[in-house]
Design a protein that fits this description.
Layout lengths: L16 H7 L9 H8 L9 H5 L6 H9 L3 H11 L3 H7 L11 H6 L5 H14 L14 E5 L3 H12 L3 E5 L8 H4 L10 H10 L4 E4 L10 H7 L2 E4 L5 E2 L12 E3 H10 L11 E5 L3 H12 L4 E5 L11 H9 L3 E3 L3 E8 L2 E9 L2 E6 L2 E4 L3 E2 L14 E2 L2 E2 L12 E3 L11 H19 L2
Parallel strand pairs: 1-2, 1-4, 2-3, 4-17, 6-13, 7-8, 7-13, 8-9
Antiparallel strand pairs: 5-14, 10-11, 11-12, 15-16
Helix pairs in contact: 2-4, 4-5, 4-8, 5-8, 6-8, 9-16, 13-14, 14-15
Length: 440
């Protein structure tokens, strides 16, 4: 295997070149046309489809699968994109095992659901590969909307507004669009620069301008945007990372998993990404799983996820936990972080309280994946600020905030579950509400 995992400390080049390619290959290779047709034939095309009811974007799943079974992948893609313009990414990263596939009648009857996610990928990939555009902009209304954040919520909002003939200017803090699709998802889930292809595909409808390196609270402010636009949509995500509240949390070797994944995603040479030999990941969600699996894929000899709660409360699905375990990641439950042990400024171990007894894990790298928070600093310089609830922006069912003319969606609002698919639904629905507001 060309494993050099006995290198002490944090280092790159732990593996042979071909091993990186193998370890970061597509998690679920796509279906070809024959495989897609065979899988589509397993669908019962339920009249009152439980899978559609389980989809946050309410895609007509039996309809899109029927199109595939009749040899019409473009018709299938249109059915998907009508509800979810980011259907390509969602097909790759959605936790289908706890949404549509969990309630599939085949799953209930046989324990083997229709592979809805892979079928959705087959259809959307076909349309994107052929660059088939299903939507045209309506005649320009002359209305201008500011969208803050070029992530799933912001892009979905911009696309739906373009369909209605409204122009959007998207202000994006980073130098690339896509949000967490580009910076926050494990590299083996969206290979071949897919997130950027999707940004290009979505914005090809026209009427969407993205201004990169424009950060809310630094380069633009909310009250200024509200003054010169007919409406504003905030899709700023979560910028702050929660802290453990322990001494030596900023020691060498201790890092935020979100930042590390973002750096890894932007790396052109995975052998140059440094990783510890023995890695501890603190957390229980998808970020913890993604960090742990990728640390192992980069050649870490030992990777342990430590989650403070019991197994049944862990946010990452059982399926994702199995992926991690199959890749050699150890998962330990009911591990309450107590102390970071530091020597010469470098973290060398962590101590946990496990049901009253102390457990020490030696390590040279620690990743914190204990959730993110909305940073009110984004509202610096603004004369107005939306009402917050539980630390995030308070919105109604349409995404409207406490400020007239201001909507919000995605991870920054209090009404989500931090899923890409939910962010898309919120961006889309806010666009419809904004269209109604502008049409009065």
């Amino acid at each position: 295997m060309g494993h050099n995992g006995d290198k002490p400390g944090i280092a790159g080049s732990r593996l042979e070149a071909e091993q990186y390619l193998e370890n970061f290959a597509d998690l679920h290779p796509p279906l070809d046309a024959h495989e897609a047709a065979v899988e589509a034939d397993r669908c019962y095309f339920c009249y009152d489809a439980p899978c559609t009811n389980a989809c946050p974007t309410e895609i007509d799943i039996p309809m899109f699968i029927r199109h595939i079974s009749t040899g019409n992948p473009l018709g299938s893609a249109k059915t998907i994109f009508d509800q979810n313009i980011m259907g390509g990414t969602c097909a790759r990263v959605c936790p289908t095992e706890t949404l549509c596939e969990e309630v599939c009648v085949r799953e209930i009857a046989e324990g083997k659901p229709v592979k809805i996610g892979l079928l959705q990928r087959y259809a959307t990939d076909t349309a994107m590969a052929e660059n088939v555009q299903f939507y045209e902009r309506a005649e320009s209304t002359g209305k201008k909307i500011a969208i803050v954040g070029a992530g799933p919520a912001g892009l979905a909002c911009a696309h739906r507004l373009a369909i209605h003939g409204h122009d959007s200017t998207v202000f994006e803090a980073r130098s690339k669009g896509g949000g967490l699709n580009e910076f926050g998802i494990a590299a083996y889930k969206t290979v071949d620069d897919f997130a950027q292809h999707e940004v290009d595909y979505v914005t090809a409808i026209g009427g969407i301008e993205i201004k990169y390196d424009n950060e809310l609270g630094r380069d633009v402010n909310l009250s200024g945007l509200l003054e010169i636009h007919d409406a504003v949509f905030l899709g700023v995500g979560l910028d702050g990372v929660n802290r453990l509240g322990l001494d030596d949390e900023d020691a060498l070797g201790v890092a935020d998993a979100v930042d590390w994944i973002a750096d890894l995603r932007q790396s052109k040479d995975l052998s140059k990404v440094p990783v510890g030999n023995r890695v501890v990941v603190i957390g229980g969600g998808m970020t913890a799983i993604d960090a742990a699996v990728q640390a192992k894929a980069l050649g870490a000899a030992e990777v342990t996820i430590c989650y403070r709660g019991p197994v049944e409360r862990m946010k990452a699905s059982g399926y994702e936990q199995e992926i991690a375990k199959n890749r050699g990641v150890i998962i330990r439950y009911e591990m309450q972080p107590e102390e970071i042990i530091v020597e010469d400024g470098q973290a060398i171990a962590m101590v946990f309280d496990r049901q009253g007894s102390k457990t020490r894990i030696d390590c040279d790298q620690i990743f914190k994946a204990i959730g993110q928070e909305f940073m009110p600093a984004a509202l610096n310089g603004s004369a107005v600020a939306p009402e917050l609830e539980h630390g995030r922006i308070k919105v109604d069912a349409d995404g409207a905030t406490s400020i007239d003319g201001l909507w919000a969606g995605g991870d920054c609002v209090n009404a989500g579950d931090d899923l890409t698919v939910t962010a898309v639904a919120q961006g889309r629905d806010a666009a419809e509400a904004i269209h109604k507001f502008l049409s009065k």
